């Protein structure tokens, strides 16, 4: 069950399915923290942030979805995420990267089962868009306060248009205005 905690924030279980504008949406929150070596368990890192096998199974059991929203990236990621993972610019520990890879594989299995036309995720703090050979699209949203961390989602065509930084910083009124112009939703990472 979803719990509304403000005008713009809902707490939802993992996984969670809902419909918006006639589209089936699958949300699967959770991800690994590759920086957990620098965090304190129970304070700014929690074991239950990981996507579990039962969560993966429940997401797959729900069947197809038009749109998939995850925090973690899928294993078949946008080129910008692949470069980040390959270069490891923050020198994260190999064991942390292994847990991260396993989480991305979980997300990939769910995506391959649900076959969303559009899969959007955050977590990697880099914007990128990737058109897969099978016609599906993966979008990675940038980090909060950066360009391309928010945009307008055209639900009819399942197309995402990132907002430029000046519009992101322009406030909520501008988001609402753009979303009200069509059958769209505002998405922020």
Describe the structure.
With 189 residues, this protein is of the alpha/beta class. It has one domain (3-145). The chain is 28% helix and 24% strand. The protein contains 5 helices and 11 strands; from the N terminus they run ββββαβααβββββααβ. The strands form 3 sheets. Strands 3-4-5-6-8-7 form a 6-stranded mixed sheet, with helices on one face. The chain has a 3-stranded antiparallel sheet with strand order 10-9-11, with helices on one face. A two-stranded antiparallel sheet has the order 1-2. A hairpin with a 2-residue loop joins strand 3 and strand 4 (23-28). The longest helix has 21 residues, at 94-114. Mean pLDDT is 90; it is low at 177-183.
How are the elements arranged and paired?
Elements: E1 3-4, E2 10-11, E3 16-20, E4 23-28, H1 53-61, E5 67-70, H2 79-87, H3 94-114, E6 118-121, E7 128-131, E8 137-140, E9 150-154, E10 159-162, H4 165-168, H5 172-180, E11 184-188
Parallel strand pairs: 4-5, 5-6, 6-8
Antiparallel strand pairs: 1-2, 3-4, 7-8, 9-10, 9-11
